[in-house]
Structures are given as structure tokens and as C-alpha cells.
Amino acid sequence: MGAVWLWGASDRTQRHLGNKFENNGQDFGAVLVELPLVVIVGVVLPGLVWGLGAWVLTRRERGRGRSEVHG
């Protein structure tokens, strides 16, 4: 939800949605193209960051465990 809110609040998006005098320059193509990408990134990116963090922590624990046992 944060990614969608941030996208919607940006000046660029407001300009495309016609937040000007009498809706001059209104372009719903921005919504049709950008909004699905924002939703996908908002769903995928946190999972990737969490997975990368878990992988790094697992590698660190494995490395420390080996050195204590064999060292």
C-alpha cells in the first residue's frame, strides 16, 4: 500500500491525472501502465529484501558454526 500511496502522491502522477486547471493534460495511460507496475514492485520487492536478508543471515551463521567446530 505504501508504494501505491507514494506513486499517487508524486507530482508526476498528479500532473498526469489532471490535477491542473480544468484537467488540462489528463492522461489515464499513466494509470493503466504505471499502476500495475507499482503494485507488482510493491509486492515483490519486500519479499526479495526479506529473502536476501534471510539468506545473508543463514550464510553468516553457517560460516561461524564451521569455524568454531573445526577451529
Description:
This protein has helices spanning 2-9, 11-16, 29-70. The mean pLDDT is 78. With 71 residues, it is mostly helical. The chain has one domain (2-70).
Question: Would you tell me the structural class of the helices and strands?
Answer: mainly alpha
Percent of sequence in beta strands: under 5%
State the helix count: 3
Please provide the count of β strands.
0
General shape: rod-shaped
Oligomer: single chain
Give the termini distance in whole angstroms.
Answer: 48 Å
The helix/strand order is: HHH
Report Rg: 22 Å
Helicity range of the residues? over 70%
Instruction: Please state the average pLDDT score.
Output: 78
Q: How is the main sheet built?
A: none
When the domains are counted, the total is 1
| Model regions low in confidence, pLDDT < 50 over at least 5 residues | none
Task: Briefly summarize what is shown.
The protein has 71 residues and is mostly helical.
What layout of secondary structure does this protein have?
Blueprint (H helix, E strand, L loop, with lengths): L1 H8 L1 H6 L12 H42 L1
Helix pairs in contact: 1-3
